[in-house]
Automatic annotation (TrEMBL):
It is found in: Cell inner membrane. The gene is mtgA. PANTHER family: BIOSYNTHETIC PEPTIDOGLYCAN TRANSGLYCOSYLASE, MONOFUNCTIONAL BIOSYNTHETIC PEPTIDOGLYCAN TRANSGLYCOSYLASE. Its main location: membrane. Belongs to the glycosyltransferase 51 family. It comes from Undibacterium amnicola. The chain crosses the membrane at residues 6-27. The keyword Oxidoreductase does not apply. It catalyses: [GlcNAc-(1->4)-Mur2Ac(oyl-L-Ala-gamma-D-Glu-L-Lys-D-Ala-D-Ala)](n)-di-trans,octa-cis-undecaprenyl diphosphate + beta-D-GlcNAc-(1->4)-Mur2Ac(oyl-L-Ala-gamma-D-Glu-L-Lys-D-Ala-D-Ala)-di-trans,octa-cis-undecaprenyl diphosphate = [GlcNAc-(1->4)-Mur2Ac(oyl-L-Ala-gamma-D-Glu-L-Lys-D-Ala-D-Ala)](n+1)-di-trans,octa-cis-undecaprenyl diphosphate + di-trans,octa-cis-undecaprenyl diphosphate + H(+). This is Biosynthetic peptidoglycan transglycosylase.
């Protein structure tokens, strides 16, 4: 095999495929500036897993406009997940450094230090695996989202697509699943509880009486009024 062929297979082709993949992601993101995504990569994966047990299973998910989601929930999610969301450019570098040090100590990737935008990037396009390659791709998509969308639109898509329980996705489905009400009607205490569930939604779906969930919810309830909501 000639040097030119080796360079093609080892360098040119992989780089070209990588750039094409980034272009695909960018086109999708530009489209979602004006049109709502029907589902995400993570939603489809979870649905496939659940349908292996029950072929008739259908995810609980309903899109609602940003204005129809309680401000209580918006403030609670920011307080719990990413209190610098309105100010940073997609990445909290201090949180990532702490996560890197934690991963180094553990000898594996156990923490990501992800912002809301990073979580959305992962949910929209990527698998749930933990690796530094996936983290790198997540960062690229994160910067695309921040470049193409305003914070309010990023937050709107996040609130409508994030996992909130076993087969439960988005604020509207979560509010109806846990409280039998719309996302617009969530009280401060209900919103705080939902926000605290986000890191481990399937666990808390099965363990709604968790003492930690109650304690953490009370902390978020006290903090959420100082949360800064994004504006267009």
């Amino acid at each position: 095999m000639t040097l030119k062929r080796i360079l093609f297979w080892v360098v040119v082709l992989p780089v070209s495929l990588f750039l094409l993949l980034q272009l695909y992601f960018l086109i999708q993101i530009i489209w979602w500036r004006s049109f709502n995504p029907d589902s995400t990569s993570f939603m489809r994966k979870q649905e496939a897993i659940l349908q292996e047990k029950d072929p008739k299973f259908v995810l609980k998910h309903k899109w609602v406009d940003y204005s129809k989601i309680s401000r209580n929930l918006k403030r609670a999610v920011i307080a719990s997940e990413d209190d610098g969301f309105s100010d940073h450019e997609g990445v909290d570098w201090d949180a990532m450094q702490k996560a890197f040090e934690k991963n180094k100590k553990k000898g594996k990737v156990v923490s990501g230090g992800s912002t809301i935008t990073q979580q959305l990037a992962k949910n929209l396009f990527l698998s749930g695996e933990r690796s530094y390659y996936r983290k790198g791709q997540e960062l690229i998509i994160t910067f695309m989202l921040e470049m193409c969308m305003d914070k309010e639109r990023i937050f709107e898509i996040y609130l409508n697509s994030v996992e909130w329980g076993i087969g439960v996705f988005g604020a509207e489905a979560a509010a109806r699943h846990y409280y039998g009400i719309s996302a617009a009607a969530l009280s401060p205490s209900q919103a705080a509880r939902l926000a605290v569930m986000l890191p481990k939604p399937r666990y808390y779906d099965k363990n709604t009486g968790s003492a930690y969930l109650q304690r953490r919810s009370e902390i978020i309830l006290r903090r959420m009024n100082s949360s800064e909501l994004p504006t267009r």
